[in-house]
Amino acid sequence: MGLLPKENTLKGVYSHDYVTHVFHRGNVMPLPRTVEAVFSFAEQEGATTFLTVVEKKRVANFIANKLSDVLFEKMGSVVEARIPPETLREFHLKNREDTKITFFDNVDIPNVNKLSLYGPDLINTSLFEDYGKHGDLWYVVARSKKYGYVVGVTRDASVTIFNLTDKERYLEYVTNEIYPLISEFIH
């Protein structure tokens, strides 16, 4: 649908129709469905272009592959971003009094795959430091000081804002707070 260029961004709505089958009164019937998702391409620092798709992860990945196919004539040219564990740790430390949940993976303890901490007093425990010695920070839920949003961020740069429904403000947050975390890793 209508593309909107603005400064270093290109925003639009991806629309995709498909048919699903539902059981209704003893019969399986086809039902048309439409997925519409806001997306944004944003150029950062003149070299890196980020794609943000405002949708659940599975659908966002599907749309990213479709856009890759259209733009580059092959799937896989658009790839997931990465935030290094150290950078995610810095994100936590900037918001440490407002961090509510942390997950660690790549744990070096036999037969333990993930470690997690939940609660409003994570700042007052030594467990965060102990877990950080045994695994990599994978997921953080914290309140953004600047925006006030409760945000979940993973190392693959999946971002969930739990107390926001405005898609434009979501894109603004991701551009201003998350892209820099990824940019540090790229440069």
Helix content: 25-40%
Mean pLDDT: 89
Question: How are the strands ordered across the major sheet?
Answer: 6-5-7-8-9
Distance between the termini: 33 Å
The global form is globular
Structural class: alpha+beta
Largest sheet: 5 strands, antiparallel
User: What would you report as the Rg, rounded to the nearest angstrom?
Assistant: 19 Å
Task: Tell me the count of domains.
Answer: 2
Low-confidence stretches: none
Secondary-structure element pattern, one letter each: EEEEHHEEHEEEH
Describe this entry's structure for a reader.
- This protein has 187 residues and is an alpha+beta fold.
- The chain folds into 2 domains: 69 residues, no CATH class; 102 residues, no CATH class.
- The longest helix is centred in the C-terminal third of the chain and has 20 residues.
- The relative contact order is 0.13.
